[in-house]
Amino acid sequence: MKNILLKVEYDGTVYKGWQTQNLKSAGNSPAKVATIQQTIEKSLSVIFQKKISIAGSGRTDSGVHAKEQVANFKINNEIPLRRLKKSLNSLLPNDIIIKQIKYVDLDFHARFSAKSKLYRYTILNRDYGSAFLRNQVFHFAMPLDLKLMRAEAVLLKGKHDFRSFQASEKKPRSSVRTIQKISIKTQEDLIFIDIQADGFLYNMVRNIVGTLIEIGRGKMPKGTMRKLLDIKDRTYAGPTAPALGLCLIKVFY
Fold it and tell me: How do the domains of the chain map onto residue ranges?
C-alpha cells in the first residue's frame, strides 16, 4: 500500500468549491456538481482504472482559489510518480495543476495531519478594475484607512472564540481558533490580507476581511474587533467579502 500526496494549484472560478457535493436534481436523484476534488478523482480513476477517493486538507468554497492545496490517497499500485504527475496534468483542465506528487508515510492524512493554513485575501483598491485580475481580486474603489485596519487586525491574533466571524453550519462545532499570524501589506494598488491559523471556521476569513473593509472605509469605529470578540454574534460583524479574492496559499505540517 502506498500513500501519495498531491500539491494542487487551482483557479476556483468555475467550480463549486473543493469538496465533492451531491445535490438533488429535478428528478430528486443525486446530481454531482463540478468541484475540484471530483475533477481530480475522475482523472485518477481513469489512470488507475478504478474508483479513487482523495482527502483534502480542507474545503474551499465556490470561487475560492488555491496556490497550494494538499490532498492524499492510498493505492496498491506501484507507479512512477513522474509519470503519474504527467498523466494527471494531461487529463485535468488547465485551471487545475498538480504541482508536486510524492510518497508519504501511511499514517499521513492531508486534513488531520495539518498544523496550520495560510490564506491570502487580495483587494484591488483603485477606481477601475483589472481585465487580467478580475477573477482573483476583489475590486474595491473607495479609499481605505490601512493604518486603522492594521491596528484592528492585530487584535485578532491569538486564541479566541471567533463566533462573530462564523457563518452558519449544519454541524455545531467549537468556534475557538488560534490565529498565529495576520498582516496587511500593499503592492501598488493591491492590498494583501494574510491570515495563518490552526484552523478556520466556515467563511471566517471572508467575514474578517469584510469587517476590516467596513472599518477601513469608516463604517465601523476603532475598537470594533475587540467588541466582536467579546459579543460573539455574527450579526454585528461586517458583510462576507466576495469569494474571488480568497486564495489558500499553503498548508503547514
Answer: 2-104, 116-252
